[in-house]
Specification:
By secondary structure, the protein is α/β, with parallel strands linked by helices. The chain has helices spanning 3-7, 25-32, 35-38, 51-60, 70-78, 104-113, 124-137, 153-163, 183-188, 201-207, 217-220, 233-238, 240-257, 263-270, 280-287, 318-330, 340-347, 350-360, 403-414, 418-423; strands at residues 13-18, 42-47, 65-69, 87-88, 95-96, 98-103, 143-147, 173-177, 194-198, 211-216, 227-232, 290-291, 300-301, 306-307, 379-382, 385-387.
Length: 425
């Protein structure tokens, strides 16, 4: 640790927000293992009840920063939603980590129509479409699916999964927003038929015997980005040394987390009531890569369910930012033409990440953009940088230099006109 840096931090006392989810782990480990302290930081972790709380408190300066949804920092910066505040992120907290789970009643309907395909992850959406079509023919109410926030990875994953099977998520089902810890209770009460949420709340529903997981985020898009450390642009400019120390501490915590022999200890720490407040064995399902899709099935080996450091997981790829922006356009959250590259380069700050990583001697990618969807196995973008597979469920590829072409491909595929109306402006 650079002692001069430690002594000259502009703001050593910080309050950071988090939501009770497994991927708050880098913050928890940095706190519990004394890593924040080694970088001259005295951190209070503030457990928040919803992503709206996180958004508002960061924007107002009540929180110095927070675990945030990756698309949220983009949406806030662009005025998508009620809060317009310039944000940045220089650190990705993790890859993967979410899943789509349905109630036992809905799964029973799916199994009755297609018993051989209902439990196959890459066929489950197609079976769901059969159920939706049958319900419409019987004049039944639309199914209700929950996500955690309008500009959330979960929202775009649920929509992408449905649309890949020809389901229109704006017409064929009803989408609602539910805070992550409430998902299990809302499914148990019958308020929602399914949800897309981060762990451990899918595992909690499975463990309680009230739901079944159909597909994980990894199976939707291998090694796709999830949460980030979000701070306001103003905060980052006011406290640059503090920000760098915070990035360094989280980078050390993420490296610790991705040591396989640390995962059990990590699960025990984050399961505590002041953090996730869930049974340790439920938290461990995703953290140790032994995941149950159903309570009466044997665990499946999913070693990449939670990735915290390997595959350059902490690097804020600007190409990831552009992909999220394409989804905002695809689902008409933007009302005007989008300058994809300008937004990505303003909000996502790989330069700041590289600076922090260099202090620790951690290799960092020298490029800011990469394509997605073309790698079935681990690959190297350059020497000393190993990236993971990046396949999409529908076999598409994403070129960040041509977001309009990417969007046009979806418009032709589903003939909905939603994307075309924005592209032609």
């Amino acid at each position: 640790m650079n002692v001069a840096l430690q002594q000259n931090l502009e703001k050593p006392q910080l309050t950071l927000g988090f939501i009770p989810l497994t991927d708050c782990a880098p913050l928890v480990i940095a706190q519990e293992k004394g890593i924040f302290g080694r970088y001259g930081l005295e951190v209070t972790l503030s457990k928040e009840t919803s992503w709206a709380n996180i958004r508002d408190k960061v924007a107002l300066g009540i929180l110095d920063g927070a675990q945030m949804l990756a698309p949220m920092v983009l949406g806030m910066s662009c005025g998508v939603g009620p809060v317009h505040k310039p944000m940045i992120t220089a650190f990705s907290l993790d890859l993967n980590g979410n899943a789509i789970t349905v109630s036992n009643a809905l799964y029973a309907s799916m199994h009755a129509l297609a018993p051989l395909q209902a439990s196959v992850p890459n066929r489950s959406a197609h079976v769901l479409k059969q159920v939706i079509d049958a319900r419409r023919a019987a004049d039944e109410e639309p199914l209700v699916f929950a996500t955690v926030f309008p500009t959330a990875t979960h929202t775009y994953e649920l929509r992408y999964w449905m649309a890949s099977a020809g389901i229109d998520p704006d017409r064929d089902v009803r989408l609602v927003v539910v805070p992550p810890p409430q998902m299990k209770a809302r499914m148990e009460s019958g308020d929602v038929d399914g949800f897309c949420v981060g762990e451990p709340w899918n595992a909690a529903a499975v463990h309680a015997g009230i739901g079944r997981t159909l597909i994980t985020k990894y199976e939707l898009w291998n090694n796709s980005p999830e949460k980030v450390l979000g701070v306001t642009q103003e905060w980052a400019e006011q406290y640059p040394l503090t920000h760098r120390a915070l990035l360094m501490a989280l980078l050390e915590a993420a490296r610790w987390l991705d040591q396989p022999h640390h995962r059990r200890e990590a699960a025990a720490l984050i399961a505590r009531s002041r953090y996730v407040h869930a049974p340790e064995e439920v938290v461990a399902m995703s953290m140790t890569g032994t995941y149950r899709y159903a309570v009466d099935e044997a665990p499946r080996a999913l070693p990449d369910f939670n990735v915290f450091h390997r595959y350059a997981a902490n690097f804020p790829w600007r190409s990831h930012a552009i992909w999220f922006l394409t989804q905002m356009v695809r689902w008409q959250q933007f009302k005007a033409p989008v300058d994809f590259r300008r937004i990505a380069e303003t909000v996502y700050r790989p330069d700041l990440y590289r600076d922090a990583a260099a202090q620790l001697g951690v290799p960092a990618p020298s490029i800011d953009y990469k394509s997605e969807g073309g790698h079935a196995t681990a690959w190297s973008s350059e020497p000393h940088i190993t990236l993971g597979s990046d396949l999409f469920i529908d076999g598409r590829t994403f070129d960040p230099t041509d977001p309009i072409g990417y969007l046009a491909g979806f418009a032709r595929a589903d003939d909905s006109g939603k994307v075309v109306s924005l592209i032609r402006r």
